[in-house]
Amino acid sequence: MDILDTSSKVTLEERRAADGLDAYVPRILRGSELYDADVDRFFLDLPLNGVRSSHSLRAYGYDIMVWLRFLTEVCDKTVWEAARADVEAFHRIRRKSGPGSGYRRRRGTDRLLQ
């Protein structure tokens, strides 16, 4: 029986301790720590770049969390180590996976392969 180490699992925190719209800016964690300060800055900049809906912020969070989880669990890489081959592998898995697998294909992501 395999024992899964969840201490380093990539997870999404949908809300943060902040006022106003910043409370809805997601955070991605690895274990109990922030995954990456630059990824967090990307999320904090979303409202300044026009993404103000709490639903849109959450969608960004989940999509990026799935990508980072794939990189961590399948490729054993960080977001900054990812290569084109990793993007292609991610898309292959998402196309083959059924609903609820966590690796589903979303509209517009094919542009990453171009």
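[next item in queue]
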Amino acid sequence: MTSSSPTLSPPAYGYLPIPGSALRCYRCTNYSGKCTNVQDCSYEDACLQLFERGGKIIRQCIRHTDCENARLSQMFPAVSSFSFSCCSNNLCNGSPATMISKPLLGTLASLLVFWWCLL
């Protein structure tokens, strides 16, 4: 007698939530230097960086639907002038220097390969 156990086909498995795969964002309020506090977000969230005019930065999880100027003005009424960015990769709301270094490294690597091929 053979027994068979139920199996999930790859397409069905691809739609199952994987534990620990929710978005992670930095969380620092009024902090313009390096931020090391990490927050686990929900699946409906994005990572926010809100830049106040005086140089302070607010980093946190935020709902994707709240990533618009009018909604942020309501959520942060004490901040009169700001710019912001929302992103949806893990820890993508880190310091601007960290975010710039990865593309710069890729560009430098590409140039090095190009130069090496010319030799």
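[queue empty]
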